[in-house]
Structure formats: structure tokens, C-alpha cells
Amino acid sequence: MDFFGVLTMLGGLALFLYGMETMGNGLEKLSGGRLERILEKLTSNPIKAVLLGAGVTAVIQSSSATTVMVVGFVNSGIMKLTQAVGIIIGTNIGTTITAQIVSFDVSVLAMPAIIIGLLLYFVTWKGIRGFGETVLGFGFLFFGMVIMSDELTGIGSFPSVERLFSYFDCTPADGVMPFGAVMGALAIGLIVTMIIQSSSAST
What we know:
single chain; mainly alpha; 11 helices; flat
């Protein structure tokens, strides 16, 4: 991967994160200020709260955004701590759906979503505009994912990359996972996610 390839990959990451932010803003506008009341009704029991957290995170692809939003609701008294715990547990489940989404060919959805979302974004009615912003963010998110995937295709065959990841091979030996490799792999995931604030992008 050359210098321009690295820039392209980082550009894809930027589009992914921008799409995530745009989609979250669109969903907030689409709710028309009713989000707090909706959440209160949907968190009446722990099972509903977990499912809600998983669903919201699967849609906006950001457990961080969901968690921050929930903490804000708790601080403002809209939601109780017991309700928030269920949602936060659900956000971690919702994040794992990203791996399944990546396995699908989402490139065919990206550009139509961007075009449709951009057209709807210019509609003056707030509800339609919020929907357009949500669709636009969805398109940017998956377009960024496609760019990153294209640039990273084949990088796993590079000798230097193979050597790097061989240090973090967590394959069990005699039924026991190597402690050092596991800790190293966890540290990489932790640091990258702390920097870019998105476990979905890391995945």
C-alpha cells in the first residue's frame, strides 16, 4: 500500500465516521423531539431495554453515541439508571452486528442512498429532511466502508503485515490461548477504538 493508498483508506474512515454522525443527527431530527418519550416507553423492562440498545446501535453503528445519549437522559432525569444499564448492555450486542453487515456486499446500496438522501435533505419539511439526512448518513457510512475494504484488500498477504499479526495469533496451543498474544490483541482493539471512538470502524 503506497502513500496515496493510505490517504484513500483514511478518507474512507473519515467518510464512515461522518456518515455515522450524519445518520445519528438525522434520526434525532426524525424523532421530532419525541425520542425521550419513546425511550421511556420502550425501557419498561430489562429485556426491552437490551433489545432497544442493540437495535439502535445496529442502526446508527455507534455504541458510543448510544451510550452518551443514554447517560444524558439519566442525568436529566428522563431515564432511571436501571433502564440505562439494559440499553448499554444492548449496545454491546448491537455492535457485533457490524461484522455481519461487513460480510454482505453493501456497495450497491451506498451511492443510491447518498443520491436519495441528498435530494430529500433539501426538502424544507423537517420530517422529510430528517429522513433524508438519515439516509444520506447511511450512504456515506457504507461508502466509507467500501473504500476502506477496497484499499485493505490484499494487505493481509504482505510479509510485514503477516509478521506483525503473527505476534498476536490467539490460536490455542494444547487447549490454552497464549496470554501475551491475547493481551496484545486486546490492547490494539482498545487503543484504536479509544482514538476513533467507534468499535464498528475498528471491526
